[in-house]
Design a protein that fits this description.
Strand order of the largest sheet: 1-2
Shape: globular
Strand content: 5-15%
Protein name: Chromodomain-helicase-DNA-binding protein 6-9 tri-helical domain-containing protein
Pfam families: HTH_CHD6-9
Helix content: 55-70%
Largest sheet: 2 strands, antiparallel
Number of domains: 1
Order of helices and strands: HEEHH
Distance between the termini: 19 Å
Radius of gyration: 12 Å
Oligomer: single chain
């Protein structure tokens, strides 16, 4: 990830969030990818980065990490 990509990811996730489909239990990355200009990132890559981002946020806030983080 470049600095620009990390910055764009953080900006978009904090401003718009990420759409989640409870039926398929998967994130919907199409609109997010477009807004954040992360066209070359795969769904799996974005999901992994979101999980790491959320773990970092929990650590900073002093909250316990969820299983697998």
């Amino acid at each position: 990830w470049t600095d620009r990509e990390e910055s764009d990811f953080c900006r978009v996730v904090s401003t718009f969030g990420v759409e989640f489909d409870p039926q398929s239990r998967q994130y919907q990355w199409e609109q997010f990818r477009s807004i954040a200009r992360l066209d070359r990132k795969t769904d799996d890559t974005l999901t992994q980065y979101l999980q790491m981002f959320m773990a970092m946020c929990r650590r900073v806030c002093g909250l316990p990490l969820e299983e697998g983080e």
